[in-house]
Amino acid sequence: MIGPTTTYLGSDSAVHLSEELEDASYVLPRAMCASAIVNYGLGFVMTITLMFNLGDLDDDLTSATGQPWAAVIQKITRSKAATIVLIVVMIVMIFAFARDKGLPFHRFLSKVRPNGVPANSVYVTFSVTCLLALIIIGSTTAFNIILSVSATGLFTSYLIVIGTMLAKRLRRESFPASRFNLGILGWIVNLIAICFLLVAFLFLFFPPAPNPGPAAMNWVVLIYGIAIFFAATYYFVRGRREYEGPVMHVRKDV
């Protein structure tokens, strides 16, 4: 499930970067729809290209990276530009969330130098990226677990938000005025999203094969539970008193 579900990772990144936009309430939802159409279209073209240029599959499966998809992309593109772009996006997202006091050590992470660069967020992102890259050297299984935990965490956030939207629709509660209203299609989109997310979310906890041993076991459920425990603890102990959503900053600016 890791391969198919990773195509949805980061689909909400534009929301976290919306403060960089002008007229975000109009531009942002249309940009998200356009990004899906463009990326899935280009993804289809990329898939066809990969199929024709795959080469020796055994070499990719036994690549030193431990990740066949990484070996294929490296062999075909010979480019590190995509990795650099992802790191830059992650830096901005960490800074924005820390600025909203949603992360531990938010004062450190949200600090901006006089030149306008959130250097601390840059250093943290770089350090975490290096540590994650080192994990695959020791254990491919551990690296796959990290990928699965990332997907389950993101899907959890999607389920909470979309589930809340669907619950408000069922209770016939009103929504704030919107410049991108799907009308009755909103119900359909929410229901399809919930059904897909539930299936994908559950299967991410399954082991890769029946009757796995400790080495082949999918330990995502344990790591996910630990992460949820610490996140909930931080929220109830400190986060709920300090966290300010982006809306608060917009209202203050206005």
UniProtKB/TrEMBL annotation:
Organism, as annotated: Recurvomyces mirabilis
Gene Ontology molecular functions: transmembrane transporter activity
GO cellular component, one term: membrane
Annotated compartments: Membrane
Stored InterPro entries: AA/rel_permease1
Keyword Protease: no
Membrane topology, record value: Multi-pass membrane protein
Top-level taxon in the UniProt lineage: Eukaryota
Annotated TM spans: 31-52, 81-98, 119-139, 145-167, 179-204, 216-237
Cited Pfam families: AA_permease_2
Major place of residence: membrane
Protein's name according to its UniProt entry: Amino acid permease
Keywords: Membrane, Transmembrane, Transmembrane helix, Transport
